[in-house]
Amino acid sequence: MQTGVLIASIAGIAIALAVWLVIPSVSQQRVMSVHGRDPVSRDLLATAWSRRRRTGPSRTEKLGAALRTLSSELRAGTTPGEALARAAGEPPLWPNALAASRFGEPVDAGFMADAEQDRELATSLRQLAACWHVGVTRGSGLAVSVERLALSLRAQHELQSTLRNELAAPRATGRMLAFLPVVGVAMGYLLGADPIAWFLGSSVGAMIFAVALALTIAGTVWTRRIVQRVERGLV
Questions:
Q1: Residue 184 in contact with residue 30, Cβ under 8 Å?
Q2: What does R_g of the chain's alpha carbons equal in angstroms?
Q3: What is the pLDDT of residue 35?
Q4: Residue 38 CB: number of other CB atoms within 10 A?
Q5: Exposed/middle/buried for residue 139 (C-beta within 10 Å: 0-12, 13-18, 19+)
Q6: CB 3.0 to 4.6 Å from 122: which of 54, 90, 115, 223, for a disulfide?
Q7: Average model confidence (pLDDT) for the chain?
């Protein structure tokens, strides 16, 4: 009986932490998507948890900032090679393009080489190579095309952020539903029964346990695939 109470207490604490940390994070993300800022948290543990999960800017965000810097430098009259060096960052986002600019080789070919080495930024670097080739060939419009590419990258990032915010609730719901069988077992112990012994001590119990486990796994996998399909369809 004491073992059952202990298991039930641990399960209750786990459920409380899940509801406290997972569900509020979903509402906070929706507030961020509406107001464009972090809500003020009055909970020290929730704040610490959110800081733990927070990471620095992604490489896509860094590339967007670099493109805006590059466009600003070009509009200010900086030479393309110098603007390219100032906007590259540290470490540079386009090392091969920088090397090509310094040695007098085609910069667009350098961007293509960078795209082959960086799968995450490959598409954007190829687009930048096309912008650079057209701008250098025509002798104008480079700053405008780079700025438009930066705006396109920002719009794509905002779409991905909105999609993550909208899919946070289904993900949290899926995790909570996957954890519900543990709650049922804990409630059984609280009522004075021994569910685990019944599941493992009889053929009927073992069959029900196997079916329940299979359905739980299938539901979790199904929910995850639905979320992934939505992500692939909208991004």
A1: no
A2: 27
A3: 42
A4: 13
A5: exposed
A6: 115
A7: 76
Which regions of the chain does DSSP assign to beta strands (E)?
none
Question: Do 196 and 174 have their domain in common?
Answer: yes
Q: Both 10 and 50 in a single domain?
A: yes
CB 168 within 8 A of CB 29: yes
76/23 same-domain check: no
Does 52 share its domain with 63? no
Closest residue by Cα to residue 69 from 147, 154, 142: 147
Q: Which pLDDT tens digit goes with each residue over 173-208?
A: 777 777 778 887 788 888 888 888 888 888 888 888
Tens digits of per-residue pLDDT, 21-67? 444 444 444 444 444 444 333 333 433 444 444 456 788 888 889 99
* CA–CA distances in Å: residue 208 to residues 36, 104, 114, 122, 196: 48, 72, 56, 50, 12
Distance CA 128, CA 223 (A): 37
**Residue 80 Cα to chain centre, angstroms:** 34
User: Cα(115)–Cα(25) distance, rounded to whole angstroms?
Assistant: 35
Separation between Cα atoms, residue 24 and residue 30, nearest integer Å: 10
Tell me how crowded residue 127 is: count the other CB atoms within 10 A of its CB: 19
Reading the block at residue 75, the tokens are: 């509009």
Nearest to 179 by CA among 3, 17, 5, 71: 17
> CA–CA distance from 159 to each of 122, 148, 170, 234 (Å)?
19, 17, 18, 9
